[in-house]
Amino acid sequence: MSGFPDEQPSLQVTYSKHVVRWGTLLKVGPEKNQWGDPLRTGSRNASNKCGPFKVIFSSGFLNSNPQGELGAIDFPVVEIRKGNKVILEQTALELCDVNLSRYNYFGECPDRWAKSIEVVPTSSGHEVRVKRAFTDAASKDVERIDLYK
């Protein structure tokens, strides 16, 4: 801190890295589809503490029928809580296309899909920055950033 009364102290930021192997969280059942691949049945959760937040990881998949045969991609899913309050509901870390209704099986595109999620310290606490990248109804690639506190 300097000797000037109007200066704010600098914000100290500490980063830690956690590797989450989200693909191992995917649950599959004993049944197989017509190609011999196991059918997806759900996901386990893994969580880490990040400042005042609890970050919960799981695995998502596109599955528009109970047999799970129409979902071609799996993706990581993140939920962020502060105490008992959900700051960011389950959000897929994958690009989505509003023109393809299969993405809405997991959650509405683009509101439940994101390119990246960051927990960022600020002078008043923390904020969660969610960068959304998607293809809109006019088939244009769009990006937007949503902030949550």
Order of helices and strands: EEEEEEEEEEE
Total count of domains: 1
Per DSSP, the total helix count is: 0
Residues in β-strands, percent: over 45%
Largest sheet: 5 strands, mixed
Give the strand line-up of the largest sheet.
Answer: 3-4-5-6-8
Radius of gyration: 19 Å
Average pLDDT score? 82
The overall strand count is 11
Kindly state the percentage of residues in helix: under 10%
Q: Give the termini separation.
A: 27 Å
Low-confidence spans:
none
Q: State the secondary-structure class.
A: mainly beta
Anisotropy-based shape: flat
Explained architecture:
The strands form three sheets. A five-stranded mixed beta sheet has the order 3-4-5-6-8, with no helix packed on it. Strands 7, 9, 10 and 11 form a four-stranded mixed beta sheet that branches. It has 149 residues and is mainly beta. The protein is flat. Helices cover 0% and strands 50% of the residues. It has one domain (22-148). A hairpin with a 5-residue loop joins strand 1 and strand 2 (38-43). The mean pLDDT is 82.
Blueprint (SSEs and pairs):
Blueprint: E1 26-32, E2 38-43, E3 46-50, E4 53-61, E5 74-82, E6 85-93, E7 96-97, E8 113-114, E9 116-122, E10 125-135, E11 141-148
Parallel strand pairs: 6-8, 7-10
Antiparallel strand pairs: 1-2, 3-4, 4-5, 5-6, 9-10, 10-11
Short description:
The chain is mostly beta strands. It has strands spanning 26-32, 38-43, 46-50, 53-61, 74-82, 85-93, 96-97, 113-114, 116-122, 125-135, 141-148. Strands 3-4-5-6-8 form a 5-stranded mixed sheet, with no helix packed on it. Strands 7, 9, 10 and 11 form a 4-stranded mixed sheet that branches.
